[in-house]
Design goal:
The chain has 156 residues and is an all-alpha fold. The protein contains 7 helices and no strands. Helix 3 packs antiparallel against helix 4, helix 5 runs parallel beside helix 7 and helix 6 packs antiparallel against helix 7.
Length: 156
């Protein structure tokens, strides 16, 4: 009888600790989810909704370094795709200022310059993209696109 009571008490204590652990883990995950939600929406959404989310993330002051640079880069992509080349170029430039290893920002800025028919500036950015070793996931895309665009623009 005594062993049964001790066993039940131990199991109850383990259950309680497990429940507390799960509750703490859920609270931590929820807190981190809230912190990163604005940035997540920047990357998850498209168009004006993504631009607004990226802007909120930038203005939140919670992001620094490479993380902030990728938020600027993503907002620039959305702006470029909407044809807002000047704002896209400004955001790509800020991303590069923060993290010069962000290869995709050079290629993206080149595409924006090309959209404005500023071919020499586009070529310059494509060459800069090729000079930066791929460090992030978009590195291969940035190099491939830069090479392809330089080939197309070779005669211009």
């Amino acid at each position: 009888m005594r062993g049964t009571i001790a066993k039940r008490t131990t199991l109850s204590l383990i259950g309680l600790l497990g429940l507390l652990g799960l509750t703490a883990a859920a609270a931590i995950a929820l807190a981190f989810g809230r912190t990163d939600d604005v940035a997540a929406r920047c990357f998850k959404e498209q168009g004006d909704t993504a631009i607004a989310a990226c802007t909120r993330a930038i203005h939140s002051g919670r992001f620094r370094g490479a993380e902030l640079a990728t938020i600027y880069d993503n907002r620039a992509i959305e702006l470029r795709q909407l044809g807002d080349y000047d704002r896209a170029i400004a955001d790509y430039s800020e991303a590069i200022r923060i993290d010069a290893a962000l290869t995709g920002a050079y290629t993206g800025r080149g595409l924006a310059y090309e959209g404005k028919d500023e071919i020499e500036r586009a070529k310059s950015d494509y060459q800069k993209a090729l000079a930066v070793a791929p460090k992030y996931d978009d590195g291969a895309w940035a190099h491939d696109t830069a090479r392809q665009r330089l080939g197309v623009l070779a005669g211009k």
